[in-house]
Amino acid sequence: GCARDWDGLTCWPRATFGEVVKIPCPRFFEEFTSTHGFLQRNCTQEENWSEPFPPYTIACGFDEGSSKGPEDQKSYYSAFWRVYTAGYAASVTSLITALIVFAAFRKFHCTRNYIHMHLFVSFILRAVAVFTKDAVLFADETMDHCLMSTVACKAAVTFFQFSILANFFWLLIEGIYLQTLLLLTFVSNRNFVWWFIFTGWGAPTAVMFAWVLTRIHQQNTGCWDDDENGLVLWIIKGPILLTVLINFFIFINVIRILVHKLKSQEGGGKHSSHFVRLAKSTLLLIPLFGVHYIVFAFFPESTGLEARLYIELGLGSFQGFVVALLYCFSNAEVQTELKKQLCRWQYQEYLTFTHKHGALSRETSPVNYVTQLSLLDKISPKRRTSVLQDGVTTV
């Protein structure tokens, strides 16, 4: 029969002689057209595939002369790729800088910042995983995605899924820890850190282990980046939805606690001031909790594809940058410590400059030169004798 074939837009499965294969239009067409059409190809006796019928232009609902053809869609996704690449690059740079700041200053070594640092690492892994997946799967535009099934591409997809899971779990741990700080007056037990670390990294590892085993035994096709069946899909999607849902309820509860605290502190003050402070707190907490993921959490993947791309991929790529900005660079304690260190460096440079300048001045001073000659005369009797014989006196 006919082997699997990649025609540049979709993958056609194997077929026997004379078989007619029917598949739906590629999913990305649904974002630009409202047509949910089907394509067919016939496996001829000459072991060749026939041309798709009806053609893509008719079956999938776009005109060749319109602005919604495949080339325009490719240009659209290329532009979007640049946006999220810039976002992840900015996130990685700011997160690594924030990690260095927290690690370099002993003052910042505490339970709260340890959790922040692990969250930073999860965001960095997520960005690196996106870059790795793009490099391995989509670097060569002429690649046959039907036949691509290498260990490298499967490892890249597995690493990508693990980083996504770890990031969602650490967002959940941040939410749990923040609520704990708001509910309890004093939290000092460092054992919490080890439980958080075990949960934040151990749970995604266990889920990925189950996913990989299921993939190998039940759906070992392609690079593991294709559409999955129900069981395989929910091994990863289930824990992610659970973390998003729990974090959303924690977010609502934290807002409720903040409202109560603001009311008690202001004691019936101006309503506008109370509203402004609450609005600021809410806007700051949204990227920290990942609340924006709740918008499409329980919808199918094909629902609102363009909006999903903007919210989850476009805005999500800058989430690490926003988290580093809020947790580190906008923190008054961090800013104070950095200013102290900067003043300390400037003072040390001033002392070094003053010491060098003073030493140079003493070396070039006339008084110092005369003193050196006198010491030389005391140390060297021969020089002194020769000088006296010549009738020359030293000062």
Automatic annotation (TrEMBL):
One Pfam family linked to the record: 7tm_2
GO CC terms of this entry: plasma membrane
InterPro entries associated with the record: GPCR_2, GPCR_2-like_7TM, GPCR_2_extracell_dom_sf, GPCR_2_extracellular_dom, GPCR_2_secretin-like, GPCR_2_secretin-like_CS, GPCR_2_VIP_rcpt_1
Keywords: Cell membrane, Disulfide bond, G-protein coupled receptor, Glycoprotein, Membrane, Receptor, Transducer, Transmembrane, Transmembrane helix
GO biological process, any: adenylate cyclase-modulating G protein-coupled receptor signaling pathway
Annotated ranges, domain G-protein coupled receptors family 2 profile: 1-64, 80-331
Cell compartments where the protein resides: Cell membrane
PANTHER family reported in the protein's UniProt record: GROWTH HORMONE-RELEASING HORMONE-LIKE PEPTIDE RECEPTOR, PDF RECEPTOR-LIKE PROTEIN-RELATED
Family in the record: Belongs to the G-protein coupled receptor 2 family.
Name of the protein described by the UniProt record: VIPR protein
Organism whose genome encodes this protein: Certhia brachydactyla
